[in-house]
Amino acid sequence: MELPNEMTFEQAIARLEEIVELLDGGELPLNESLKLFEEGVGLARECTKQLTEAQGKLETLVKKQDGSVCADDLQV
Predict the structure, then answer these.
(1) Is 67 helix (H, G, I), strand (E, B) or coil?
(2) Quick count: other Cβ atoms within 10 Å of Cβ 47?
């Protein structure tokens, strides 16, 4: 199994979607469900981290000449 920080954002999202589908099925044993939930939390944290980093880069790119950031351009 790849660690979350070795995955691309897209890979992490795809794996997170798989985990949600498996957990939604409700047919897994408790121990397996807990392991998948823990993996999902790690993936969600990694995705949040990558999005935060991307937002920081965007803010740097859209700074105005006076140094202010045009935050309206960053809404996703």
Answers:
(1) coil
(2) 17
Distance of CA 74 to the CA centre of its chain: 17
Residue with tokens 């351009």, as numbered in its chain:
73
Cα–Cα distance between 11 and 3 in angstroms, integer? 11
pLDDT value, residue 1: 43
Q: Which residue has the tokens 């691309």?
A: 8
Model confidence over 15-74: pLDDT tens digits? Answer: 999 999 999 999 999 999 999 999 999 999 989 998 998 888 877 777 666 767 665 555
Taken in order of first residue, the domains within the chain and their CATH numbers are 4-74 (1.10.287)
User: In angstroms, rounded to a whole number, what is the distance separating the alpha carbons of residues 44 and 23?
Assistant: 15
